[in-house]
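Our platform keeps sequence and structure together, in a single record for each protein. Such a record has a labelled line for the sequence and another for the backbone structure tokens. The tokens are whole numbers drawn from a learned vocabulary of local backbone shapes. The remainder of this section carries one protein's record, kept here as part of the documentation:
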Amino acid sequence: MGVEPENTLRSFVRAEQAGMDAIELDLHLSKDGALAVMHDPDVGRTTDGRGLISEKTLAELRELDAGQGERVPVFEEVLDAVGSPVQAEIKDVAAARVLAGVMLRRDLAGRVEVSSFHDEAVAEIARLVPGVRTVLIASRWEGDVVERAKAVGAATLALNIRRLTLEVVEQAHAEGLKVLGWVVNTQDHLRLVRALGLDGATTDYPEIRRAGRFTA
């Protein structure tokens, strides 16, 4: 989203061309049950429209400009547009169930990792899709965040880099969990990723990876 319209096919193709390891995207259910790719529940920030995704049909979402003439994609279109591994963030249990259907039909457990801030959604997708890799996300957390991840079967924690501590990383690693930092958009944060020994990071700027090889 730092260099192209957020959550659009154009942005995902750009990320893949830049050599990123995976593409992260966000899913919301439209009024008619489509897996719309957009971060916010409301279309106002990233399109020329207004209103909630949940109150719009896919056809209505298609009419919106998501930036530079891009349209709001659905999940299946992203899978067809790029070949990269995908991390799909879901917002609730309902989205988990629809996503599970797509993953089972297209045998995506090996390609698509599913993440959520919501423990119940992580547990639900794990229940419905055998072998799926899951990620529990947190911006603010208590001392039980590692136990929460284990309880819902998550293999990875994705944590706010601005609040992440070595203690949490070491605790997670001791329990066999990976730790990702988000959002890493500066060289200082990239240095922190390396200092903490994180397993990966999310960025809005693909070029930070290339530049970081020399300056971080």
In short: Strands lie at 23-29, 35-37, 86-90, 112-116, 133-138, 156-160, 178-182, 200-201. Residues 93-106 form the longest helix (14 residues).
